[in-house]
């Protein structure tokens, strides 16, 4: 049994900008500094929060929250419509700083990325030193702050970057990994969503140490094919390479309900939440889509999908929500209960067909 990561170790950095959109707004407009800034759609248009400044986060405002809810939590919040062209330009500037040290860069969105500095361009050798130099360059050249996580793989580096926010750096070295993973709450594990976390807790599995008591066979039996992934992850094993190109084919959100839904009004209420999440993710990636798909799984586990293609690219909440409600209205729910609903969007702008049929697309986020 592999006890954990083994040498030779990779040197992975995860850089995560601090409240990126809001910080750019506060940098560019002095009147916003030290104010609770909420970037996203306006409350009277049923918008969604893309990000919030730390001043607004103190009131509980979070990304993917409805703007109406954000306004209730933070009545003094200043709502700012996103300026994606500005954010994209700043992202390009950030990536230029990354490229001083490595070309092995995997963007996750406009405001975060993985870097593999196992072999860095400048021969520095220390991933900690490189991460600190990158943070200082971002601060001095762009007047923004970033948090960094440094470790031997992507999963642990990403968790580390969130441990000392904002404007912090955390290193989790090989000797710390097993203890760190044993203490980690299950909901912090990569790929563990709300429903899976609830299932784990119902099985009295609350931390990595609890998960570690299950054999690989037991993990697969309880959690399917991802069980093997969790089995390795809890041991700090993550062999995923940093990929310079990321393929985005769709953006989705779905939820499995503790109690099956019977009323259409309850389904519409859930679609509203899902549409907010998808809108927020589109905004975070600065994408627009043409095709939206509704996914429905019934209590008997039968699953159907219905899709709709817009005549023009869309990314606004209202279009996504109304179109999924339209698709829902065309379904026959006679005598059926719904255990899962999902919304996904695809067919993004700026996509390049990968083959003659044009049904696979690749997009570089940076």
Automatic annotation (TrEMBL):
Gene Ontology terms, MF aspect: damaged DNA binding; DNA-directed DNA polymerase activity; magnesium ion binding
Gene Ontology, cellular component aspect: cytosol
Gene3D superfamilies cross-referenced by the UniProt entry: 3.30.70.270, 3.40.1170.60, 5' to 3' exonuclease, C-terminal subdomain, DNA polymerase, Y-family, little finger domain
Gene Ontology terms describing biological process: DNA repair; DNA-templated DNA replication; error-prone translesion synthesis; SOS response
Binding of Mg(2+), residues: 16, 111
Coiled-coil intervals, chain numbering: 254-288
Organism domain of life: Bacteria
Listed cofactors: Mg(2+)
Cofactor binding note from Swiss-Prot or TrEMBL: Binds 2 magnesium ions per subunit.
Catalytic reactions on record: DNA(n) + a 2'-deoxyribonucleoside 5'-triphosphate = DNA(n+1) + diphosphate
Marked site positions, Substrate discrimination: 21
Keyword annotations: Coiled coil, Cytoplasm, DNA damage, DNA repair, DNA replication, DNA-binding, DNA-directed DNA polymerase, Magnesium, Metal-binding, Mutator protein, Nucleotidyltransferase, Transferase
Chief location category: cytoplasm
Pfam families: IMS, IMS_C, IMS_HHH_1
UniProt keyword annotation of DNA-binding present: yes
Family: Belongs to the DNA polymerase type-Y family.
Summary of the function given for this chain in its UniProt record: Poorly processive, error-prone DNA polymerase involved in untargeted mutagenesis. Copies undamaged DNA at stalled replication forks, which arise in vivo from mismatched or misaligned primer ends. These misaligned primers can be extended by PolIV. Exhibits no 3'-5' exonuclease (proofreading) activity. May be involved in translesional synthesis, in conjunction with the beta clamp from PolIII.
HAMAP family the record matches: DNApol_IV
Protein name: DNA polymerase IV
Species of provenance: Taibaiella lutea
Name of the encoding gene: dinB
